[in-house]
């Protein structure tokens, strides 16, 4: 139940295009750098580090314990093994920016 | 890893770029994601995850100290769903 009123989805391609327009590198290199940013973030998270981007938000890795789940279709009990999950906490700046523009036409 | 550490790592891996260009690259990426969400758009980065905006309905909350009922108006919150590849990498 996302909002997505305009139905637009932004992908790597748009991010690369913005980097291309903003920084003036080639399109190829802009795309590579977008990839490098994501790769560095993924590597840090895989090492168990928190990734903190000021005025955007922070990504942290949380350890989840073992619990008993259920197959919703059959009702069978299935063990859910301990695992790590990623949690994103948006910064107040991001939350305020979103509410400033979206709340008016809600 | 903070944003400045991320910039430092990228600058090190790309010695042909000026530090200020690396800063602009990183800022542009997060600004674009923020602006997309502020338009109500989704941002889908395969392998990493997807950002979207969810609407929280207005509700009547309570001041936990006084027990007084307070109106909480409807609001929008950014939401991130971890991509499959990243989820797998966290668990290897």
Description:
The complex is a heterodimer of chains A (106) and B (92). By secondary structure, chain A is α+β, with helices and mostly antiparallel strands. Chain A has helices at 12-23, 27-46, 92-102, and strands spanning 9-10, 51-53, 57-64, 67-70, 77-80, 83-90. Chain A has a 3-stranded antiparallel beta sheet. In chain A, a hairpin with a 3-residue loop joins strand 2 (51-53) and strand 3. In chain A, helix 1 packs across helix 2 (27-46). The radius of gyration of chain A is 19 Å and the shape is extended. The two termini of chain A are 14 Å apart. The mean pLDDT of chain A is 91. With 92 residues, chain B is an alpha+beta fold. Chain B is elongated, with a radius of gyration of 19 Å. A 3-stranded antiparallel beta sheet of chain B has the order 1-2-5. Chain B has one domain: IHF-like DNA-binding proteins (HU Protein, Chain A). Chain B has helices at residues 3-13, 19-38, 84-90, and strands spanning 42-45, 49-56, 59-62, 69-72, 75-82. The mean pLDDT of chain B is 95. At the A-B interface, strand 1, helix 1, helix 2, strand 2 and strand 3 of A face helix 1, helix 2, strand 1, strand 2 and strand 5 of B. Strand 1 of chain A pairs parallel with strand 1 (42-45) of chain B.
Key features of this structure:
heterodimer, A: 106 residues, alpha+beta, three-stranded antiparallel sheet, 6 strands, B: 92 residues, HU Protein, Chain A, two-stranded antiparallel sheet, 3 helices, 5 strands
Short description:
The complex is a heterodimer of chains A (106) and B (92). Chain A is an alpha+beta fold.
CATH H-level superfamily title of chain B:
IHF-like DNA-binding proteins
Element-by-element helix/strand order of chain B: HHEEEEEH
- Most residues in contact, chain pair and counts: A-B, 57 and 51 residues
Our estimate of the beta-strand percent of chain B is 25-35%
Assigned CATH class of chain B: Few Secondary Structures
Any idea what the radius of gyration of chain B is?
A: 19 Å
Order of helices and strands of chain A: EHHEEEEEH
User: What is the subunit organization of this protein?
Assistant: heterodimer
Q: In this structure, how is the largest beta sheet of chain A organized? A: 3 strands, antiparallel
Helix coverage percent of residues of chain A?
A: 40-55%
* Number of helical stretches of at least 4 residues of chain B: 3
> How big is the Rg of chain A?
19 Å
């Amino acid at each position: 139940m996302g909002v997505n009123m305009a139905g637009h989805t932004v992908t790597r391609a748009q991010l690369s295009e913005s980097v291309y327009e903003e920084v003036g590198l080639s399109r190829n290199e802009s795309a590579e750098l977008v990839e490098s940013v994501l790769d560095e973030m993924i590597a840090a998270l895989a090492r168990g580090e928190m990734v903190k981007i000021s005025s955007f938000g922070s990504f942290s890795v949380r350890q989840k314990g073992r619990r008993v789940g259920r197959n919703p279709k059959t009702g069978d009990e299935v063990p859910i093994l301990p695992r790590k999950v990623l949690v994103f906490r948006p910064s107040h700046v991001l939350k305020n920016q979103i509410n400033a523009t979206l709340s008016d036409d809600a | 890893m903070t944003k400045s550490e991320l910039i430092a790592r990228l600058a090190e891996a790309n010695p042909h770029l000026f530090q200020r260009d690396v800063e602009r690259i990183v800022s542009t990426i997060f600004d674009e994601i923020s602006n997309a969400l502020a338009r109500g758009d989704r941002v889908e980065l395969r392998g990493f995850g997807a950002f979207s905006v969810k609407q929280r309905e207005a509700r009547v909350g309570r001041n936990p100290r006084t027990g007084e009922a307070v109106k909480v108006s409807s609001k929008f919150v950014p939401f991130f769903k971890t991509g499959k590849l990243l989820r797998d990498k966290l668990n290897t």
